[in-house]
Amino acid sequence: MHDLRWIRDHPEEFDRGLTRRGLPPRATEILVLDRDWRAAETRAQEAQARRNRISREIGTAKQRGEDAAPLLRQSLKDRETETEAAAEAARLRTQIEEILAELPNLPAEEVPDGVDETANRVLRYHGEKPHFDFAPLAHEAIGERLGLMDFARAGRMSGSRFVVLRGALARLERALGQFMLDLHTSEFGYLEVSPPLLVRKDAVFGTGQLPKLEEDLFRTTDGRYLVPTAEVPLANLVAGEVLDERLLPLRYTAWTPCFRSEAGAAGKDTRGMIRQHQFEKVELV
What sections of the chain are H helices per DSSP? Predict the structure, then answer.
C-alpha cells in the first residue's frame, strides 16, 4: 500500500513512477479525495467537540433551572452532522485505499524503462553458458523418456498444468526440500514452520496478492484462498503485532505446496513444469 502522506509531498514523483510502469497519472485524483476526506474528518471532529461543550452547558443550565431545550436541539443537530461527516469520511477513505491497493510499486531509479523483459539490462554473468554438440532435449522430454514425469496421467486426473513425479525424481524433489530446510535452519538461523495452506482474504491482501493478482489465486467456496506461496502465511505470522525489537530479526522458512491458477499465462509455457497449478517450494521470509 502506498503512503498517502508521501504522495501529498511528492505528487509529481508519484505520477512519474506510474508513467514508467505504463499507467496513467493518479496523484490529482487521489489528492482530491484526500482533501475531501480530511475535510469530512474535520467536520466530524468539530461537531463532536461542539456536542461535548454543549453537553457541559446543558448540565450547567439544568443546575440553574434554566431552559435547556435550545441547547438540546443544537446537540441533536451536531450529532447528525457528526454522523453524516463520519460516514462521508469513511466512504472517502475506503475509496482512497481501494485505489492505492490496485496500484503497483513504483520502480527504483536504476530500473530501466520498457514495456516488458526485453528492456532489461544484463548486469553480470556467472559461469559460462554450456554448449552441446547435440540438440538438447527439453526437461519434460527427458523426464518422460526416463519415466520420471507423467503429464498424461496427471492431466486425466486434474487437467492441464499438473504433473506426476515418480521414483528418483520424486525422491530428488523431497531431498532438495529437506536440504534447503536443513541448511537454512542449521546455518542461517531460520525457524522452520509448517503453516496452514488455506488463508483468509486479509492475509493475501497483506502480502500484496490482492487485489491485483486475484485471478491467479484459487479461492474456496467459503472465501478462503489456497496459498500461492508460503510467503503468505509466514509473513502473516506476526501481522498486526507489536514486536520486541530485541527479538529481531525474525527468520522463517517453510516447505509447502503452492497453488496458482496462472490465469494470466494462457498459452504460455503449456509444456513442462514452468507454470504449474501446483508445485513445491521452500520459502524464506
Answer: 4-9, 11-20, 27-63, 69-102, 139-145, 151-158, 167-187, 201-206, 231-235
- For residue 194, the enclosing domain spans 147-284
Place of cell 457541559: 56
Single residue among 102, 127, 160 that ends a domain in this structure: 102
Select from 218, 252, 219, 247 the least CA-distant residue to 235: 252
SS3 247: helix
When mean pLDDT is compared across 94-108, 109-123, 218-232, the lowest value belongs to: 109-123
For 29-40, what is each residue's pLDDT tens digit? 999 999 999 999
Do 184 and 95 share a structural domain?
no
Name the pairing type of β-strands 252-259 and 278-284.
Answer: antiparallel
Q: Residue 196: is the preceding peptide bond cis (ω within 30°)?
A: no
C-alpha span between 245 and 241 (Å, rounded): 12
Q: What are phi and psi of 284, to 5 degrees?
A: -120, 125
CATH number at residue 84: 1.10.287.40
Mean pLDDT, rounded, of the chain:
93
pLDDT range class, residue 116, cuts 50, 70, 90: confident
Q: Is 229 helix (H, G, I), strand (E, B) or coil?
A: coil
- The model's pTM is 0.78
For the record, the C-alpha cell of 69 comes out as 431545550
Residues 40, 89: contact at Cβ < 8 Å? yes
Q: How many structural domains are present in the chain? A: 2
Using alpha carbons only, give the angle 232, 237, 240 rounded to the nearest 5 degrees. Answer: 105
Cell of 150: 507423467
Phi then psi dihedrals of residue 185, to 5 deg:
-80, -35
Please enumerate in sequence order all residues whose Cβ is within 8 A of that of 192, keeping only pairs 6 or more positions apart, or say none.
181, 185, 253, 254
- Taking only Cα atoms into account, the Rg of the chain, rounded to an integer number of angstroms, comes to 28
